[in-house]
Amino acid sequence: MSIREKARLVRGDVPVDDSTFEVFINLLEVQAGLKDAYMPTVERANFEAAREAVETGRPAASGTGVWLREDEIAYGVRSIASLILEGVPSESHHVAGVLEAVEQGRLELKGVAELMLKGDMRGAERVAEKAGVDPTALSSLVAWALQPAFTSLSVRLRNYIDLSGWSSGRCPICGSYTSLSYIDKKGVFHLKCQFCGTEWDYPAGKCLFCGNDEQELISLVDLGEGKPLNLGVCHVCGNYWKLVDERLMELDIPREIYDLWTIVLDAIARRLLK
Q1: pTM, whole model, 2 decimals?
Q2: Residue 160: its pLDDT value, please?
Q3: Cα separation of 49 and 245, whole Å?
Q4: Which of 142, 224, 159 minimizes the C-alpha distance to 198?
Q5: Domain coordinates of the chain in residue numbers?
C-alpha cells in the first residue's frame, strides 16, 4: 500500500481542506524518498557511541550527532522546498530566501542542524538572522529534511540498542519529546516519536512530559462514538498527548500515519488549553 493510499484511510478524520491534505501527503512521499536516499549514509553514524548514550540514559543522537554531509542536508532541504514552493504559495518568499542563502554560501545547513539537534533553537535563529532568512522557514526545512535521516537511523539501530530500560517521554533515538502514543491490541501502552518514528514502552496513565502519575491530575478526553482517538491532558504541567487505542480500530491504519490521523486531537487540545 502506498503512502497516498494509507493517508486516504484517515482522510475523514483529518480536519483540513483538500489542498492542505494534499500537501501533507506530498510531504510524506518526499520524505519517504529521502529516507531511502539517506539509508546508506546511516553507516557513517557511530553505533557504539549511540548504544553507550542510551545505556547511560541519553538519546542515541547525543552520541551520533549529525552524520550527514552539508551537501546531503542541502539535497533534502531542496527536495522539501520544491514541494512547499508549489503547494504553499504563501510561504514561497521565505522558502526561496533560504534556498538563495544556501546557493550563495551565506548559510551552512549542517551547523543549523547540529544546533537544532542539541535543542538550541535560539542559536539556530541567530544563524538565520545573520543570513537574512526567515527563522521559521529555515528550521522547518531543516527539520523536515533531517526527519527521514533519523527515521533511517532508528530502523538501523532497532536491533542494536536495547530500549527496554528506557523510561523517559523523550525519544531514546533522536531525543525529541513526543505527544503521540498508542495502546496495542494486547492493551500495552507505547510512545511513538513524531520525528523519527521510534516506538518504546511507557507506563500508562503517566504524563509523558513531567512524569506525573496522579490519576486525579490527568484527564482523558475521547471523541465518542467508539472512535479510537483520545486526548490525555496533564493538570500539573499543562501538556497533552494524543492516544490511539488500537483495540477500537475498525481499519488497519499504519502507525506511520498516526500523527497525521490525530491532527484533530491537536485542534481539540488547542481549544481546551488556550
Answers
A1: 0.93
A2: 93
A3: 35
A4: 159
A5: 3-157, 180-273
